[in-house]
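hiii so my PI (J.) wants the whole complex modelled not just the main chain, which honestly fair. so below is everything: two entries, each one labled with what it is. i double checked the lines twice but i was tired so who knows lol
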Amino acid sequence: MKKITSLKELALNFNWGMVAFVLHRITGIALTVYIFLHIWTLSAVTEGAEAFNHSLGKYENLMGHIFEYLLLLAVAYHLFNGIRVTVVDFLRFTRQQKRLLAWVIVFTVIVALASLTVFIPELTTSA
Amino acid sequence: MSGTRSSVAHVFGWFLQRISALFLVVGLIVHFWVLHYFIEKPITFEKVAARLTAPGWVIFDTLLLLAVIYHGLNGVWNILVDYNPAPRLRKVYGWGLFLIGVATFVWGMITLIPFTAPA
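here's the output for the full assembly
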């Protein structure tokens, strides 16, 4: 049996559905890895409230905020594309999947723009 | 090797992936809303503990933990299976991910419990 599509094959037979598929996997793996980091950060609470506050405080800077924003983007894309995959699966929207992909991009961009200053307040409080 | 039992297991895994996804869609929107928009920064132990005095939030966070562990690790499983591993390696992947999942759940619960204990 043949192995799954490599990046070289993607380049040779380019289509947006494959890009969406690869992005879904990359964001999925990244978010799964993040779960461990997330629990590790929060688990400082086992050493007391002070340790917990200090542990969360490590994210209260520009780098931390950008990281959390990228995390939100990964969640937003994975969520909207996941809904697209589910809709295509259950409602047999196979023919509409390309148009649905446009909606995935639209919704992800809306979340990205609406959350920018909420997640990265440094953008509004100019130094 | 694809007998009836593994086919049923496969469909069940696919179905649970959709069910956990459905919960995560609602759950993560609530999670992000509460912890990034609703709560006043910075997030502190006191604020989290105050929210978790309500049993509903403890149940919500526990379900979110369960759903995200299953969804994430089953997703990794799907990717690994795509590379068509030998049956023995497949078994190692399956048990490895299962044990990681159980350990992560226990770790998550150990982290959740201190917030619910009276300060």
